Amino acid sequence: MQLARKQSLFKTILEYFVTVDHKKIGLLYLFSGLFFLVCGTVLALLMRIQLAVPENDFLSGQTYNEVMTMHGTTMIFFAATPLIFGLMNYIVPLQIGARDVAFPFINALGFWFFLFGGIFLYSSFLFGEVPDAGWTAYASLAVVSKGHGVDFYLLALQLSGAGTIMSGINFLVTIVNMRAPGMSYMRLPLFTWTSFITSALIIFAFPAFTIGLILLLFSRLFGAQYFNVAIGGNTVIYEHLFWIFGHPEVYILVLPIFGVFSEIFSTFSKKRLFGYNSMVFAVILIGFLGFMVWAHHMFTVGLGPFANAIFAIATMAIAVPTGIKIFNWLLTLWGGSIRLTTPMLYGLGFIPSFIIGGVTGVMTASAAADYQFHDSYFVVAHFHYVIVGGIVFGILGGLHYWWPKMFGYMLNETLGKISFAVLFVGFHTTFFVLHFVGLMGMPRRYFTYLKDQDFGDLNYISTIGSYILVLGLVLIVFNYIYSTVIREKAVNDPWNGRTLEWSIPSPPPMYNFKQVPQVNSLDAFWYEKMKGNSNMSSPDELSDIHMPSNSSLPFFMALGFFIASYGLMFLDKGSNNIAFITLVIGGIIAFGSMVLRSTIEDKGYYITKKQLSEEDPK
Amino acid sequence: MISNTTKLTRENFPINPERATLEGQNKYLGFWFFLCGETVLFACLIGTYLALKNSYSTGLSSNELFEYPLILIATIFLLTSSLTSALAVYEMKRFKFVNMQLWFFITVLLGCSFLALEVYEFIHYVDKGFKFTTSPFSSSFYTLVGFHGAHVSFGILWFLTLMLRNAKSGLSLVNAPKYYLASLYWHFVDVVWVFIFTVVYLLGMVG
Ligand code: HEM
Ligand SMILES: [Cu+2]
């Protein structure tokens, strides 16, 4: 790493374009995720400003629809997903004692597909035709939506979805095949376990969405009739496809967060995670049940009392494994020697917030009551409690926890605690009142409400809350910048951690582990520390390390599909052939890179023993 | 496990060359996961088709449309190609490169014949007035069967690329997993066809 220290900014940037290193890709995910999180938050603020007072005309109805659609789509697919993928990419190989992921090339490819998907989506603002059919894009709205807005949504998600499936496969194989000696399944850290289950959900859930998107795309671009109700088409098919994907998607996002908090609770209580086995069991069970409940989003569609009853009961059943997890976390805290660090505060804030979200979830799960709750602000409050109080807290807490490992310096604790407190207050002020607005009857996805509906006061409070929430986020970003300037150096193991990532330097060298570690127990590093060893032992001698070589092909492959998507979308403007030519150029770039990939043999390179032993052990 | 530098001969060639290296094992496992996703993909398309197959509107319905002799021949081509690709993998494990290439070549020929018949079938239907936009039934039929056809074409291209790319270099532990996976993919596409044959064509017969 010493060699790479002093180099120009340009070279560093170039390095990120061609990297296949899971750590660099992890950082790419994290920073693009943070960027989109900011975009999504700005959109949320616009909505809250519009809704602050009745009959407001800050945004028009059409603009509101666009802002709302972009907010939901951005937050789910381009903020939460990449932030979680960033953590998974960076941490999972370290936790299992691997030098890289199973498919470094595919890993990079997945990232570029995601990023180009995001850029594609946001380019809709430049074209002035923005998606407006909600993040769910139900066929009855999406097929008739004018202009190219919804096409941007469809193709952007097709691109990023392809990337997500690739990453899912990559993580699965990594965790199955690349574990260090002794790292049996029941010794995997919980973050790795949850990432494993999340990846399994991805490969079974995302293809359903792919088909849903394709059906919409064919309907819009080529006049397919699946959804034409007048001649026997059926729009409910799309709703099924969307939610067969959509419900597992919420678990795809939240399971890794459960993992993050399991690590945080156990580290800062200085205790082994309580009920490790039942935690693993609960994650698997949640993953399985997650596929059995999708129709709870469709109770009011009219599937009939029988279907509704089954899906209602299946949904309520998920509360059981989730409850198991909550109790295990509480019992991990119980009797532990607790340190109230910033990540721990996120954890402690997460538990009550997530419980509120869970309780309203079970409420909406009872089909009869859901006729009242459905499509009201009650649901908006419910899912923001699990999303912000769960997923966003988890991401921010996890970032604070692993930041020293990733960058080699600490985040400021005081600022961290203050920003958490502001965020926490802002979050609850924004969303708690929305439960009541919803119960009073305010429907979601409406751009305004009337003066005599009495929704004004609570909405005003919610808007003020969202300012506080955003202030919290600003403070967090400020902390990132401030701590980068101050650069308070981090040791290898700043939190007195328990898992393998804390046994190597911060930031880790390119090859992660000089020698592959021998794992002897759950909480492998803690076990060695308790035995008085400061390092992991290894079953192997020091030897040359094989590394995959960098490649610019992932970037160009994704770029090709990105360009081709514009061509495909504008094919209807066929009078000049520009769209068609764009499609062809994109196709050539994409398939050309594929052919190059399969004909050039990548032999990789070796870091020799000599280089390894010369390197500074720090 | 043999190292990359050992010269491969019929004697030391591993029994399962596709899983003889870590890279091979990763690809092997990853590909199975990929096939899980593909299964969901086709399951969704088949579900959509089943939901819409009686919505033929003013167009042709399934028992007025299908040309069974043609479909039967196409099916025989595709199923036989599965056999030939299995024979190719058998030769691969015996380290007989030329035989393997030959069997894969026959597989490709059979695949092309299947595709040609399918294209002819589609053109024929369009001539009968059964277009992509005619009815929900027609849209979902062309989507499902066309999607499968696209998979067949991709498989053919994959085989051809592999065969050309490695024609000179012969069999190695780097390309053995690739050949193996291409043939696995081919079997998968075949199995999907069995479902399509049942759900679309046989069920279409009874109306
Ligand atoms: C930063 C704080 C946030 C605020 C103030 C906020 C506010 C809002 C508002 C006002 C709506 C529109 C409700 C409607 O008109 O029906 C909304 C919808 C939504 N939000 Fe948020 N939100 C925030 C964060 C998030 C996050 C972090 C996520 C996901 C990771 C998220 C996901 C969604 C989704 C999926 C929708 C539904 C969009 C649709 O109906 O199509 N939000 N949010
Ligand atoms: Cu759900």
Based on Cα principal axes, name the global outline of chain B: elongated
- Secondary structure tally, helices of chain B: 6
- Main sheet of chain A: which strands, in order across? 1-2
Portion in helices of chain B: over 70%
SSE class of chain A: mainly alpha
Relevant CATH superfamily of the largest domain in chain A: Cytochrome c oxidase-like, subunit I domain
**Shape of chain A, please?**
globular
| Secondary-structure content class of chain B | mainly alpha
Walk me through this protein's architecture.
The complex is a heterodimer of chains A (618) and B (207). Chain A is an all-alpha fold and 618 residues long. Chain A is 68% helix and 1% strand. Chain A folds into two domains: 527 residues, Cytochrome C Oxidase, Chain A, CATH 1.20.210; 67 residues, no CATH class. The longest helix of chain A has 35 residues. By secondary structure, chain B is mainly alpha-helical. Helix content of chain B is 74%, strand content 0%. Chain B is elongated, with a radius of gyration of 20 Å. Classes of the chains: A mainly alpha (618), B mainly alpha (207). Chains A and B meet through helix 7, helix 8, helix 9 and helix 19 of A and helix 1 and helix 5 of B. Copper (II) ion binds next to helix 9 of chain A.
